[in-house]
Amino acid sequence: MMAIYVLALPLLGALICGLGWRIIGEGAAVWSATVSITVACLMAWSILLNSDGSVAIYLALQWIESGTFSADFGVRLDRVTMIFMVLATSISAAVHLFSIQGLRSGDYFEADEVHAPRFVGLVSLLTFAMIALVTSYNLVQLIFGWLLAGWTGAQLIGFRYRTTMATVTATGEFATVMVGSVALILAAGVVFAGFDTVRMMDVATFVPDIGGMTVSVFGRSWPLTELVGGLVFVAAMTIAAQAPLHMGWVDAADTPSPAAALLQSGTLAVAGIFVLIRFSPILEAASGAQSWIVTLGVLGACFTALCALVQSDLRRALAFLASAQVGLIMVAVGSGAYSVALWLVVAFTLSQALLVLGAGSVIRAMGGAGDMLGFGGLRQKMPVTFWAMVTGAVAVAGIGVPGSLVGMGGFAPRMGLSTTTLVSAPLWVFWAVMAASFGIAMAAGRVVFLTFSGSPRGPKDAFKLATESSTTMLVPLAALAVAAILAGSFWQPAFYSDTSRMKQWFGMVHVMTGKDKSVMGTDAATENKPLERRAFYISPANTVLEKSQNAPAWVSMVAALTGVLGFVFAWRVYARGAQGPARLAKLFRPHHSFLGQGGFAATAIAAVLARPALSLGRLLEKWGDHRIIDGTVNAMAGGLAKLFGKSNSGARYTFVCALVIGTTGLLVWMTGGGAG
Predict the structure, then answer these.
(1) CA–CA distance, 258 with 108 (Å, rounded to integer)
(2) Phi, psi of 242 (to 5 degrees)
(3) In whole angstroms, how far apart are CA 658 and each of 35, 103, 650, 663?
(4) Cα 364 to the chain's mean position, in Å?
(5) What's the CA gap between 374 and 360, in Å, rounded?
(6) What is the Cα–Cα distance from 76 to 87, expressed in whole angstroms?
């Protein structure tokens, strides 16, 4: 089974880098992990392209059995799983190849320290965790993948563990993800209590009675679907860095750019979206939870897009940009347009990874500096990186020709988002989505124009030394640029425009063969498959996609204009330098400071989660480890030494005497019934 190899190869790469690099060498370990993940990527693509839309379930072993609770270990393969597998392995392969030179060129550790195998090993382990999460057969496996992904992501964020900022940020991110883990575990418990199963798609078999089910918590009766939907949304917000829990990525300024690309696009960012889609049987009956997902998603997207527009650090600007885009994907999920959300995930993952890796190329060329206000004029110095980042920015902005497939990356998916939002949500949500799209397009253009346009604004020596990156860094950029261009139009009927094709592609219906028709009659065109065999569940009342096909033409025009106007406005404001924005920042200093710090969320998270966790760790180290554990052991050792020190003369007869006494005592215990 090829899917097992896709799951095992990243783990193999992690083991080689973590345990075998001392034997085979640093370079061989890194290249071995890169080859392993590349093979896994090719296998994932093969699985997706050769699939007929049916769901395959492979049970490996009986894992946990207790009463009616059964959590077998297995692999579930459906279209949703395959899409996320392809995205995770593709971005990871690009990150592995980019890291071969990009990581060594960075000023992360001392010159004589070996850190590349540890970094690449963590990247491979995070890829394994993501694949384990998306291929999970039940909620127990899903939680395992979730916890491992959260821990590994925190390790990558705190890769430069000697700096206080990296340590605090990593601790805050891990604590935030653990809060989401608790919410996810509670949701799984409620699902098992209500349906006596931990296989999420089995819940669909309880439709339509699921809407009236309740559960008692703290002596109060709660609608089961609303409670589970709310808990899962909280979990998704924590791992996907949604406002106000968005600072885990943003404050990770010391994180190497390859790690940021994987965290912000290929794993943690979209893990929350996957979990929401997997809980579609619950969300379809939880209108209240859906409303909260739409409302907080669009408000968070607007806020983080504004934050991206005032950042001077390149990495922070891209982190806010990623959070804003994930917020719009949340809107699609809350609207019930799951296929559109998946389409947006594909476009977002490829274009965001392209931007972040391009930023890593720029930062390497500038000697580790990340201040965009000190860049400028790099187009001639780094032409390949320039065009790659322009492609990524245009793809993020979603620029294209309305009514056609001519468009970049996020163009067609953004059209699908605009029409589905209009027909399923209040009108203010539609205009808020348009405002967020405008801000995202402007922020993406701002990154490119401040970095590459105009004349150099920073130190002249740094500009003179700037050169284009090596081949191993440019090849991933070129591959992602091509993928980002195609992501907006490839397979459009299966994601949005053809409802019947979408249902077939995602396993909603089973197209009958000639043999089936001869048995059941030629009049039947399709046969409903068992609900638990679908990639996700759409209730009969959910007609969002059908209604969106009849949306007015002006909707697509407005959605297309927001991307174009945002990018053009960014060119007008930022292409000639940063003097205009600097004057605006001075004029609106309080607002600029508030948005620049992400709404002071970082301060709150550090105060509530990160710093208390660090203080608790120091307290346990001082009192628990040094005083209690070490003190007790040392005291016992000292007492025993005084008690038996005189008898430990070293004479052989003393040793023989002790051996005889011990053996006699053991025989008496065994023959006397003491051994049972």
Answers:
(1) 13
(2) -95, 145
(3) 59, 60, 12, 9
(4) 25
(5) 16
(6) 17
User: Closest Cα partner for 326 from 257, 268, 256?
Assistant: 268
Nearest to 158 by CA among 147, 148, 171: 171
* Three-class SS of 478-495: HHHHHHHHHCCCCCHHHH
Cα separation, 617 vs 629, in Å, equals: 15
Map 389-411 to HEC letters.
Answer: HHHHHHHHHCCECCCCCCECCCH
Judge whether 596 and 307 are in contact, CB under 8 Å.
yes
Judged by phi (left if over 0) then psi (alpha if -120 to 50, else beta), residue 195 lies in alpha
At 526 the three-state DSSP class reads strand
Among residues 29, 32, 31, 41, the alpha carbon closest in space to that of 5 is found at: 41
118 pLDDT exceeds 80?
yes
Q: How far apart are CA 23 and CA 404, in angstroms?
A: 56
Token digits for 512?
Answer: 């009958």
Residue 109 CB burial class (10 angstroms; 0-12, 13-18, ≥19): middle
pLDDT at 293 over 70: yes
579-587 vs 553-574: helix crossing angle, rounded to 10: 100
Phi, psi of 345 (to 5 degrees): -60, -45
SS3 content of the chain, % helix, strand, coil (to 5): 70, 5, 25
Mean pLDDT of 247-273: 75
Q: How far is CA 177 from CA 156, 165, 602, 645, in A?
A: 14, 18, 15, 52
Candidates 266, 244, 214, 429; CA nearest to 334 is: 429
pLDDT band, very low/low/confident/very high, at 329 (cuts 50, 70, 90): very high
Residue bearing the bigger pLDDT, 296 or 653: 296
Length of the chain: 676
Give the DSSP per-residue string, 84-116.
Answer: HHHHHHHHHHHHHHHHHHHTTTS-SS-TT---H
Compute CA distances 623 → 530, 547, 610, 614, whole Å.
57, 64, 20, 14
Q: Give the whole-angstrom CA distance, residue 555 versus residue 545.
A: 15
Specify whether the CB–CB gap between 139 and 191 falls below 8 A: yes
Cβ atoms of residues 228 and 187 within 8 Å: yes
The answer to whether 266 touches 349, Cβ cutoff 8 Å, is yes
Of all helices (H) and strands (E), which one includes residue 643?
Answer: helix 631-644
Averaged pLDDT, 442-464: 84
- How would you class 101 by CB atoms within 10 Å of its CB: exposed for 0-12, middle for 13-18, buried for 19 or more? middle
Q: Is the pLDDT of residue 513 over 50?
A: no
Q: Give me the DSSP letters along 400-468.
A: B-TTSS-B-TTHHHHHHHHHHHHHHS-HHHHHHHHHHHHHHHHHHHHHHHHHHSSS--S-HHHHHH--P
Closest CA to 508 of 477, 532, 544, 484: 532
- Whether 79 and 49 have beta carbons less than 8 Å apart is answered as no
Strands 509-511 and 220-223: unpaired
Q: Is 313 helix (H, G, I), strand (E, B) or coil?
A: strand
DSSP 564-631: HHHHHHHHHHHTT-SHHHHHHHHHTHHHHHHHHTTTTHHHHHIIIIIHHHHHHHHHIIIIIIIIIIIH
Beta bridge partners of 76: 57
Whole-angstrom Cα distance, residue 145 to residue 312? Answer: 35
Nearest to 282 by CA among 154, 195, 400, 157: 195
Collapsing DSSP to helix, strand or coil, 651 comes out as coil
